[in-house]
Design a protein that fits this description.
Blueprint: H1 4-9, H2 11-24, H3 30-47, H4 59-74
């Protein structure tokens, strides 16, 4: 993970990636979206000097937290 200053500087790049992903989410196939998200768009931002911070994604940990949040909500507890 980067420092807080690096993350603040990279907010525009993250927003651009999120907007691009949301735009391409529906009409295109998963493999195309994945290629754009992991290769083409980051390179496009890099070529234009737009900073971007990409964290690694731990699928197992993400699923664990999702299930935990759902269980908390089912019990009427706050999920975060």
């Amino acid at each position: 993970m980067g420092s807080l200053n690096q993350r603040e500087t990279a907010v525009p790049g993250g927003v651009a990636m999120a907007a691009a992903f949301a735009t391409y989410m529906g009409p295109y196939h998963y493999n195309f979206r994945r290629l754009m998200l992991t290769f083409h768009w980051p390179n496009c931002l890099r070529e234009r000097g737009v900073p971007l911070v990409i964290d690694t994604i731990d699928f197992v940990r993400g699923v664990y937290f999702l299930i935990t949040a759902i269980a908390y909500q089912a019990l009427g507890m706050k999920a975060d």
